[in-house]
Write a structure and sequence with these properties.
This protein has 87 residues and is an all-alpha fold. The protein has one domain. Helix content is 49%, strand content 0%. 0% of the residues are buried.
């Protein structure tokens, strides 16, 4: 369920929001939620090494070897055999 809020927005940004709503056929609520989500991901992507490449590289810029190295560095060791070692 969505919670109603009040906010202040400049006339200029309100006009932009209305134009976007018409052009995209999306509600102003959807546009604002999408903008918040994208901005949140942009800000917090740098905190997550797996997301540092998300949305910033073209297909030709992707280096699979570097990405695989990063995955190996950042992966969590899921082998729990050492927990059951009886020695």
């Amino acid at each position: 369920m969505k919670k109603p809020i009040n906010l202040r927005i400049s006339k200029k940004n309100l006009a932009k929001l209305n134009q976007l709503a018409i052009k995209t056929r999306m509600s102003r609520t959807q546009l604002i939620e999408n903008a918040i989500t994208e901005y949140y991901q942009k800000i917090y992507a740098k905190d997550n090494p797996l997301l540092k490449y998300a949305g910033i590289l073209a297909d030709t810029d992707f280096d699979p070897e570097e990405f695989n190295k990063m995955l190996k560095r950042e992966r969590v060791n899921k082998n729990m055999d050492h927990l059951f070692d009886s020695t």
